[in-house]
Design goal:
This protein is α/β, with parallel strands linked by helices and about 350 residues long. The protein has eleven helices and 15 strands. The protein is about 35% helix and about 15% strand. It binds threonylcarbamoyladenylate and magnesium ion.
Amino acid sequence: MNTLILNKSDKLEIAAKILQNGGLVVSPTETVYGLCANALNEKAVESIFWAKGRPSDNPLIVHIASLDMLRDLVLEIPDDANKLINTFWPGPLTLIFKAKKDIIPNKTRANLDTVAIRFPANPIMLELIKISGLPLAAPSANTSGKPSPTNINRVIEDLSGKVDCIIDGGNSKIGIESTIIDVSDKRIKLLRPGFITLKMLEDTLKKTVYAPKNHFPIAPGMKYKHYAPNANLIIVDADSTQKVINRMHELIKEDMLENRKIGVLVVDEMLDFFENIPSLSLGSLQLLEDIASNLFEKLRQLDDLKLEKVYTIYLHDIGLAESIMNRLLKACNNQIIRLEDKK
Ligand code: TXA
Ligand code: MG
């Protein structure tokens, strides 16, 4: 398949036509790039799963550009959902509703009674939905298991030849995927942490939101291997930055004896301590928003460097740091070396 590349200044009519004909279009969103198809066309949705190599029991998020579209897709809009919609839409928040099952195909929902809906804030994505007139199913535009793409080069790496069209929208602003909250039940649950934090949700709802311990994700898709670079990525943690740096150096020394290609993925404040070692920075600790938006691209750069083993850090803050750690822990397959682990 020939993949058409469109620029942000190009007309989106061609992309909208492709979607209306059941094709696949990658569009930027404010979180990460999305692999879009008509959410109501079972065949089109099937090709999303094929292009990503995604397990079919992992449901998709349906993207809308008006509240009328929402009303067409869901059985009810609870009061709490309305509060969240008024505060955070358009934006990086996905809500789970009871689905109109006769309208939304089983494939889109992975046979669940519920559907995930998001009203994104990116102007290109919004226009694409509006011109096509379609609700768009859109998972992150990566091969399943790889870090979500936050620029067009990474989309091309994974999906060139597998999709009809890719729209270049520059770097994704937020860089981690939307927060997912389930409002389909009395007990409101956070399913995936994101840029919109638990505190922001609770402040808006003025009630407790159930969040699994350590924000352990309970969205169906979160059980799969995720965000994994080829290198064996391991977190090193201690009660001070200096101890983390020292421990990393000890570990690297041991690894060097085995001639391994070792690197570190740290923060600006630590870079000076790793001058002779392949090192990448996630950004400054003072700017967690930057760390979030850099994270997935840096994970992909570890692959470009062909590193075998990489040590990285733990962010202990609450809020956005927890959402970043949710992704980083998955990328590490939960491998953490804590200083007290030293034998
Ligand atoms: O920011 C985002 O949400 C991006 C952009 C493209 O919008 N999309 C995204 O989609 O991250 P994806 O498919 O990579 O992640 C969707 C997550 C999966 O973990 C899936 O299991 C969960 O949403 N999900 C979808 N429908 C659900 C449902 N009905 N109930 C519970 N979880 C659901
Ligand atoms: Mg994804």
